[in-house]
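URGENT: need a sanity check before tomorrow's submission.

F., can you look over the Aminopeptidase N record below? I want to be sure the sequence and structure line up before it goes out.
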Amino acid sequence: MTTPNMIHLKDYRPPAFLVDFVDLVFELKETDTRVKSTLTLRRNPAAAPGDAATRPPLVLDGRDMALVSVLMDGRPLATEDFQVDERSLTLPDPPDALTLEITTRIQPQENRSLEGLYRSDGMFCTQCEAEGFRKITYFPDRPDVMAAYTVTLIADRSKYPVLLSNGNRVDAGELSDGRHWVKWEDPFKKPCYLFALVAGDLFCLKDTFRTKSGRDVRLRIYVEHENRDKCDYAMQALKKAMAWDEKTFGLEYDLDDYMIVAVNDFNMGAMENKGLNIFNSKFVLARQDTATDTDFWNIDRVIAHEYFHNWTGNRVTLRNWFQLSLKEGLTVFRDQEFTADITSRPVKRISDVRTLRSFQFPEDAGPMAHPVRPSAYIKMDNFYTVTVYEKGAEVIRMIHRILGPEDFRKGMDLYFERHDGQAVTIEDFVGAMADASGRDLGQFMLWYAQAGTPVVTAARAYDPVRKTYTLTFSQFCPPTPDAAEKAPMHIPVAVGLIAPDGGDFPLQLSGEKTPGPTTRVLELRKADESFTFVNVPAPPVPSILRGFSAPVKLRAGCSDAEVRFRFAHDSDPFNRWDAGQTLFAKVILERAAEIRAGRPPVMDDALVAAFRQTLLDETEDRAFIAHAVTLPGEPELATLMSESDLIDPDAVHQARRFVIQTLAQTLRDDFETVFERNRDTGPYRVDPVSVGRRSLKNAALAYLGGLETPEAIQRLFSEFEAADNMTDTMAALTILSHIPCDERIQAIDRFYERWRHDVLVLDKWFSIQAAAQLSDTPATVRKLLDHPAFSIRNPNKVRALVGVFCSLNPWCFHSPTGEGYALLADQVAALDGFNPMIAARMAGMFNHWKKYEPVRRNLMKAQLERIKALPNLSGNVYEIVSKALA
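Structure tokens as predicted:
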């Protein structure tokens, strides 16, 4: 194949032409759709003008469509007046101001990429981020071209009674042939990636929200008719998000209507199109019998995220796609804060850091490592990553921690005041924060420019005579594919000092006159830096990186006894949980080393005692305890093993299983007590207390099920049968799915028979089997690919079956036979022909092939080379595979 071109941040140039107004008319039909686009354009005064001979042409992006006609200022253009190829429509010498009328034909029913305009379950819908609009009509498809839109939709009324687009509905009417039309107008200029339309036969849930200024906003959630009883929770989530954004950031919604549409076929989670958010149905539809507690919380999170984009992404948007984290990192931070406020802040922080460590840290250490603001890409689709989103949110969180809540809010206010209605850069955001607070954030910008996860090492010294305690920090960022040498970062490190009695010492730095709070934020700026605390009456145990104040790897040199002490006493919930995870990971990896050496593993009695103390702690939030007694997962353990050795999935799996079963046998009575104590005593509710009780109860059930005795198996089956909500159903079924027994097969079959007509619940059925830690799981997954309920054209199904198998079941995926690798490569090859975006996501699961022992490493390399050699390989997959092999 021809090597795709690389696009570089340094090559950015302002657009040659701006578009002031867009008028779109869609004639929607099943066979083909006709699109008439009328654009009012003018040369951009900010672009290099050139002379008459060198003025740039007008280039409009376009793909996969048939051009019907082009008119300029009302005059049809002859074929020699423009050029058309498979990527663009070009006018070589247009006037400085012009009106273009372009008519095209497209075939949404044939569009399997799920970009642009396509059909899903009988409805028309769109997905235009990042570059899908160019598959609808010819247009300068870049985020810094912002225009006002009017949109008219024409369709058969009987088939498509609902016709939606961005903005406010301004007119409608009937046609004599049974069709009808609706006209929409968006008064706010937007980039074309925020364009949306939906046409279908849909149920509408209606509500209103009164803003702080007294305006009533019409809220609408559109779903297929059979799902009309599954969208009440989503509506309440939307109203919570709107109220929170007004209270926390003073941001009010600006249109008369806010609409959400649930779609089954969607490449992403959701899309923040101005006023018309299109959602993957899994983040809208929920009832207690179809959705778990996690599903409900995810609905809160994702609906809030897309709503918050109205200001951080829509009102203020991106100058170019390299700035993606400007909207996504900032909005993830906002949705994390919202979720923390409505659930449990410590548990939310733990959950977010689990994601970061399990997925983003490995990305930083792999072939696709890139800065939060990438410097180059082949396909922008490949950079919707955990680095841009989750690490980007951590960068915003660090600014919040350095400035404090009050100055951070001032910075946000200044950012909107300066840039409302503009397409801007990360420098504009950080500049607003610096100007509002008076802080120098110049060095901090390195977080956006340097890839990799910094390693912070802490050394400590206590002087019993002077009663001083000194912490000396050093920082180092390992090489990544883009750079070997890294400059020191600006890193906020939140620190506490724990007294021998378990309390916190007040902290007073050398040179300060009075003691301060028990947690202080130290700002590292140099490669090596020391901080001395005075009036420390006894040697403390340091609690460093409280609240995970920076996305770094900490090497504090603490003894096992000190870590156990923090696990029992640390007042910072995150660091208390983290101490437990550190202990568990160390013990499991030590057991893995014993297994690899052929020695029988032996359990650490001190760890069992510390575990029991936490399990039975009735003073803590139940959800926190559930997290605290959950061992690190196999993917996270593999990442830790790779820091010092080649990954051995068999040893990791056996060691973790040994620790679980030993804890279950030793503390069986305690798990029984916790399970019974936390049973639901009333109707099902989704609130922090109820969710916490269920999570701890089911954590205890997981250990009891790990005994795998006939009694344990029967108990799991009974719990599965008796469950009155999907949380408990899935908990019992998940545990049972790992045990080779008749009850497992019966439960899986009964689950399918009950939910065979619910497409979202069937995703859980696929995932349960894909995650089963059984030797025949690769063969089971291969068989399920041919199941009538599976469709490779549906991204949710691919993620539920193939994605879960490859990313969350490493022991089975990394079978030494290589059958898991062959299965993944087969699916990448099949997907690449019609949905390169999802194909590239799947191919990325091979990224860490070099970190495995030689047999598996060679098997994965062979599959990567096989994929790379495919004819007509997409740029999406080529970028992933070529970097992995480099």
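My own read: The domain at 455-549 is CATH 2.60.40.1840 (Immunoglobulin-like). The CA atoms of residues 89 and 872 lie 23 Å apart. If you see anything odd, call me.
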